[in-house]
Design a protein that fits this description.
Layout: H1 3-25, H2 31-56, H3 62-73, H4 75-90, H5 96-127, E1 131-132, H6 138-151, H7 153-157, H8 162-180, H9 192-197, H10 201-237, H11 241-266, H12 270-300, H13 311-331, E2 335-336, H14 338-352, H15 354-364, H16 373-392, H17 394-399
Antiparallel strand pairs: 1-2
Helix pairs in contact: 1-2, 1-10, 2-3, 2-10, 2-11, 3-8, 4-5, 4-10, 4-11, 4-12, 5-11, 5-12, 5-13, 5-14, 6-8, 6-12, 6-13, 8-12, 10-11, 11-12, 13-16
């Protein structure tokens, strides 16, 4: 491998050095700097994981690659969320459980609202058409729909327990079983991953293992300082730390996956790009959410007490589930058109920016201020639009049953 091909890997490794130094030296610096340096370290490690996962599928058996690589690819997101969940079990009276839900819901909504939309819009700008998915992606859409319908029950019943976790994990295992038994389809790695793929098989495997281990250590070492300093930064700046955790934390962990997907879309392979983010959404909506009650139970010492959540957190879950069902309805016919991508992005932006205008809108309408009012409005708007689209795409919805086939 040439020095030029090594440059992206060296640059990503350099990004991790300050974060590792923080963990070793424990300097007395502002939480703002700690959050920045730890976040950049997680970003660098995420790039390494993304490239290593792309190449690993050349050598790992399909049945193992689908499950293991899918999990490793989203390890940065899991590390932060599981840290908050573990601390919530240790300190049930604290706000850690709220941060865990904030990080999870923010990551899920970003994937659809920004990730899916950006892929379609970038592809359409160059090729003047929307994105069509292959038939085998019916499985991803079907299981995402199943997980979403179940997730809608969580805010309605007002609890997130180990039973919910088991059901969501079972949905994920069922999905993995189907996909892992399909014939392996080789995808040619691109970018830095393509350079890594040129190594001899033994050297390639050794490089992949080293990258996996190094990136995992960086992420695990920086998950705690990043999470804690992000909360402390919010308090220091007078910014709602819930919002910082919800939107800034996922950026460090999701950015590499977003960038790689956008590169594929720019080069004309938008189906692969959208398919990868669709799989990530399913992974997070089943495995990530399903692990939260289990980690909480392990930390708190028992399964009898559900994770401590209030109406705000359940409203966040309802809003995230509403967006997810709307996205499933849009993809029921295996296509995401430009106008549909614009609708996803517009609704996401309107909801994201709602704290800036909700009080003024309520005053104009003569209503008492309720910070959750617009959350509820957007959640039900998503759900109503989803039902209308499911009726409109009823043939495509019926065809989703083929996703159960191996």
């Amino acid at each position: 491998m040439s020095l030029r091909a090594l440059k992206p890997f060296l640059f990503a490794i350099l990004l991790t050095v300050p974060g590792l130094a923080l963990r070793v030296t424990h300097p007395d610096i502002s939480p703002l700097w700690t959050a920045l340096l730890a976040g950049v370290a997680i970003l660098g490690a995420s790039f390494l994981l993304t490239w290593a996962c792309e190449v690993a599928q050349l050598d790992i058996p399909q049945a193992i690659a689908v499950a293991v690589v899918a999990f490793i690819a989203v390890l940065p997101e899991y590390a932060v969320d599981m840290y908050f969940t573990w601390m919530a079990g240790q300190h049930p009276e604290s706000a850690y459980s709220h941060y865990a839900i904030a990080n999870m819901t923010g990551a899920n909504r970003l994937l659809i609202g920004v990730g899916w939309s950006a892929i379609v819009l970038i592809f359409a700008a160059r090729y003047h058409k929307g994105v069509s998915l292959p038939d085998d992606k019916r499985t991803d859409i079907l299981f995402l729909g199943m997980a979403t319908v179940y997730a809608l029950l969580i805010p309605l019943k007002g609890s997130l327990t180990w039973v919910d976790g088991v059901i969501l994990l079972c949905i994920y295992v069922w999905y993995i079983w189907i996909v892992a038994h399909r014939p392996c389809v080789d995808e040619e790695p691109e970018g830095p991953a393509a350079a890594l793929a040129t190594l001899p098989r033994r050297g390639r495997l050794a490089a992949i293992v080293v990258l996996f281990v190094f990136a995992a250590l960086v992420i695990l070492c920086n998950a705690e300082p990043f999470s804690e300093s992000l909360v402390a930064s919010g308090k220091l700046l007078g910014i709602n730390e819930f919002l910082l955790v919800q939107w800034l934390a996922p950026i460090a962990s999701e950015a590499p996956e977003f960038i790689v997907a956008l590169m594929f879309a720019f080069r004309g392979n938008a189906a692969l790009a959208l398919g990868s983010l669709l799989s990530s959404k399913l992974n997070q909506w089943t495995l990530l959410v399903g692990m939260i009650p289990g980690v909480y139970a392990a930390s708190s010492g028992g399964f009898s007490v559900p994770i401590n959540l209030d109406s705000h957190q359940f409203q966040e879950i309802l809003l995230t589930a509403g967006q997810s069902l709307f996205a499933v309805a849009l993809l029921a016919d295996l296509r995401l058109r430009v106008r549909e991508a614009i609708a996803l992005l517009t609704l996401f932006a309107a909801q994201l920016l709602s704290p800036l205008y909700d009080a003024q809108l309520e005053a104009f309408l003569g209503l008492a201020h309720d910070p959750l009012r617009l959350h509820n409005v957007y959640a039900w708007l998503y759900l109503v639009l989803a039902v209308l689209l499911l009726i409109r795409h009823r043939h495509g919805v019926w065809e989703l049953r083929r996703g159960f086939r191996v």
